[in-house]
Sequence to fold (189 residues):
Amino acid sequence: MDKELEAIAAGRNKSGVGGTQKRAGEAAEAAFLSKATSLGFEVAKPWGESSRFDFIMHTGSRCWRVQVKSTRAMQHQHYAVTLRHRGRAYTQDEIDFLVLHVVPVNVWYVFPVEVICAKSRVRVTPRRGSRSRLELYREAWCLMACPRDGKCNSDISVWRRCLAAESGECPFHGGSLPAKVFKDRVGQL
Fold:
């Protein structure tokens, strides 16, 4: 990412002055578009701003409704983000995934809506050895590449976290993971 894009993503304009919340959202969406297309996803943007989701991602067999958020400020060793829009929590009827970009460390979290729908805020700790249960979703683009009801799309170039990658079955979607599997996976991040 060039210096100007980094400044925009960090919420600063060319002169280094802080931008608006709207501009930060636009920068997060631009960064998401770049990241998702670089991985091989087909991405579409709905017309206008009245949808509860920012993008539609096509994986070859499924379309996902994706809401994008970003955070820049560290609070007590965590990065936090509010998960409400106009005072309302996101629901399974409105989005399929919420993707969070932690701008200072350029880390992405891919949360299925089931994980965040009851929450008004999440805190993530993107560092090696973190024991946060949300670390499982760091860079978990495979959740979108592998449909919940079929084989993975091999044209999408994401690191497959699946234990059964050969068969295309994804343990993320088969219920909760055993503690040992979770611990092993978080240790790999």
Notes: DSSP finds five helices and ten strands in the chain. The domain at 3-188 is CATH 3.40.1350.10 (Trna Endonuclease; Chain: A, domain 1).
